[in-house]
Each structure stands twice: as C-alpha cells, then as structure tokens.
Specification:
It contains six helices and ten strands; from the N terminus they run βαββαβαβαβαβββαβ. It is of the alpha/beta class. The strands form two sheets. It has a six-stranded parallel β-sheet, with helices on both faces. Strands 7-6-8-9 form a four-stranded mixed β-sheet, with helices on one face. Strand 1, helix 1 and strand 2 form a beta-alpha-beta unit. Helix 1 crosses helix 6. Bound molecules: NADP nicotinamide-adenine-dinucleotide phosphate.
Amino acid sequence: MNLLLLGRGKTGSLVVEVAAERGHCVLTADIEENAGCAALASEKLRDIDVVIDFTAPGSVIANIEATVRAGKNMVVGTTGWYGELDRIRRLVEQRGTGFVYAANFSVGVNLFFDVARAAAAALRHGYSGQIFERHHVHKKDAPSGTALTIQRVIQEASGQSEDLEITSFREGEVVGLHEVVLESANDRIYLCHDAKSRRGFAEGAVRTAEWIAGKKGFHDFKDVWREL
Ligand SMILES: NC(=O)c1ccc[n+]([C@@H]2O[C@H](COP(=O)([O-])OP(=O)(O)OC[C@H]3O[C@@H](n4cnc5c(N)ncnc54)[C@H](OP(=O)(O)O)[C@@H]3O)[C@@H](O)[C@H]2O)c1
C-alpha cells in the first residue's frame, strides 16, 4: 500500500519503521511540510491508500477534515479531539470514506481491557479494587487515558456506581504499566499490562491501515482489533 504518515514524532517514526518492514511505501509530512494541510491537497493524495495521523490535538481536526474531504481513508492515533467525535462521524459517513481511531492502538492493551471486564465480576462478590499506573516522567497527563478506560470498563461491567481509585506514578523512562488489584478477605487477584516499547502502538496502527484499505465506515479500534 501507499501510506502517508502525518507527524514524525516518537510514535510516528516507529509507524514508518513498521510500515516499511511490512512492505508498504510510506510518505511522511512533518508540521512544516503540512502547513495549512498542504500535504493533504487532493492531487497529493491521488496515489495514497490510507493516511495515518500521529500529530497533536491542535492539528488533528484540520488533518481529518482535509483527508476525509479528499475522499481518503484514515487511521487516527492522535488523542484530544473526542469532543468532535459525532461531527467527524457524520462527515465520514457523508463522504463515504473509511476511518478508524483509538486512544490506544496496542492489541495487548485492548486484550487487557477484556481481561479487566471479565474480572469486574469480583466487585459483585465482596472484592474491593484499585488501579495503579506508572509512566515516564515526561508524560503530561495523569491519570493516563488507558487507566481511565480500565476504570470505565470495570465500572460498566460490574454495575457498581463507585469508580475504582487510580494511583499514578511518574518515574524514569517507564513506557506504560497498568495494574488492577482486586482484594477480598480470602485472596488477592493481580492483573498487569507492562508495555516494553511504543512499537505496539505503531504495529496496531499499521495493521489497522491494512484493514481499513478499501473499506468504508467510522470505526473504533476496540471493535476492529480482533479482525486484524
Ligand atoms: N493511539 C495510540 O495508540 C497512541 C500512542 C501514542 C501516542 N498517541 C497520541 O499520538 C499523538 C502523538 O504522540 P507522540 O508521542 O508521537 O508525540 P510527538 O513525539 O510530540 O510527535 C508528534 C509529531 O507531530 C508533529 N506535528 C504536529 N502537527 C503536525 C501537522 N499538522 N502535520 C504534521 N506533523 C505535525 C510534531 O511536530 P513538532 O514537534 O514540530 O510540533 C511532532 O513531530 C498524541 O496525541 C498522543 O497522545 C496515541
């Protein structure tokens, strides 16, 4: 496939590596080359199958609008725009393009959400629960979006009104570690996901680009990853 990657930062540079390893031809555009969405003009996208975005919350909406208006399929890893989700869904449906987004493109993390969902039954059997998350010192937000998703998944699956408490640690260069601890008077259950590198995000995004090529519709990665 011919891919266009927007954003050559920490994650985007790994997307380029993974896409090349999987035999794709990858063009890239950084913030200067894509000023005013210059890289997304229809004639520049003529031979592109899928556009992948790992840029920044302030850039992503303009990139999405330009790509969808040009009739091209898109995979969006950039976060921080979900207030616009319904409007973008309508735009994608009107234009008849294909679109997949996720706050976390790691297959392992999405599998972990299912594990947490199954374990949530413990809260109906007298267990208490806690969530712990550890990330590198450069991470700006706390708690992590992934910890908040685990909290929501457990709350929805357990039917309990109270959210599990999340404790955040920022240390060294930890890529991302999430733990759920469920405790009763009789025993303790530990669930843990420990990311070794950012490559899991990049692999998920490239495999998703392969999946959405030639398809239509607005998709959340949580409904797609099992089909990759
Ligand atoms: N979904 C997932 O699995 C996942 C995983 C990791 C990260 N993320 C999200 O992905 C985004 C990027 O993360 P990151 O850690 O890779 O950040 P990063 O290292 O800061 O990289 C972002 C890159 O995008 C560039 N950029 C900004 N606006 C652009 C535009 N309009 N066109 C082209 N390039 C542009 C930036 O250039 P400058 O540095 O010159 O501004 C920077 O090189 C964040 O929103 C993050 O939360 C998602």
